[in-house]
Design brief:
- The chain is built from 3 helices and 7 strands.
- By secondary structure, it is α+β, with helices and mostly antiparallel strands.
- A 4-stranded antiparallel sheet has the order 1-2-3-6, with helices on one face. A 3-stranded antiparallel sheet has the order 5-4-7, with no helix packed on it.
- A hairpin with a 4-residue loop joins strand 4 (109-113) and strand 5.
- It is globular and about 50 Å long.
- The two termini are 19 Å apart.
């Protein structure tokens, strides 16, 4: 964050996506990220409402792709092959003034490094989009200021589950990149 950065309205910093399954190409990731951003900015109301709407739209798109779209309880157009359909882990990061709002679907991880501490946000057991008709968005909030760093990983390596990132507190972007 730049010194004195204060934003007057909500700004979507990132919508990081990781896809697994049948159609996980870079083009599909880009297409879904653009869909999420369009839905986010097209939704009036709160930051969390906009994140939820973007996640719901992505989930519907993924379910439609593998024949499970439609309303809850409606029969699938065709059964999805177990493990073969596309699922998405998504991590939203929204900065409004000095408030950082995070929304995760799936096992995403976000690290916020402050000069004296590191905050960790995420749940490795969270359900990804495209796995169910229901959408679970895990919401997090923290305050940030210069020189804090934000790292978002929609598909963290398994070793990050137990890793201690306290040594990142107060570090530079370059040193954090090397460490991660």
């Amino acid at each position: 964050l730049a010194d004195g950065a204060v934003l007057d309205s909500r700004v979507l910093l990132a919508d990081r996506l990781a896809l697994t399954g049948r159609d996980s190409s870079r083009d599909r990731v880009d297409e879904l990220a653009a869909l999420a951003a369009d839905e986010y900015f097209g939704t009036p109301g709160s930051v969390t409402a906009a994140m939820r709407e973007a996640a719901t739209t992505l989930n519907a798109e993924l379910l439609k792709q593998h024949g499970r779209g439609g309303s809850a309880g409606a029969p699938a157009a065709r059964p999805a092959t177990s493990g073969a359909h596309t699922q998405a882990t998504v991590a939203f990061a929204v900065l409004r003034n000095l408030d950082l709002y995070l929304g995760h679907c799936g096992p995403a991880l976000a690290l916020v490094t402050h000069p004296a501490a590191v905050e960790r946000f995420g749940d490795s057991r969270a359900r990804p989009l495209g796995a169910s008709q229901s959408v679970d968005v895990l919401y997090y909030h923290t305050q940030v200021a210069a020189p804090d760093l934000l790292a978002i990983c929609p598909a963290p390596p398994a070793e990050w589950e137990t890793a201690n990132f306290n040594d990142l507190a107060g570090t530079s972007v370059e040193r954090a990149r090397i460490r991660l």
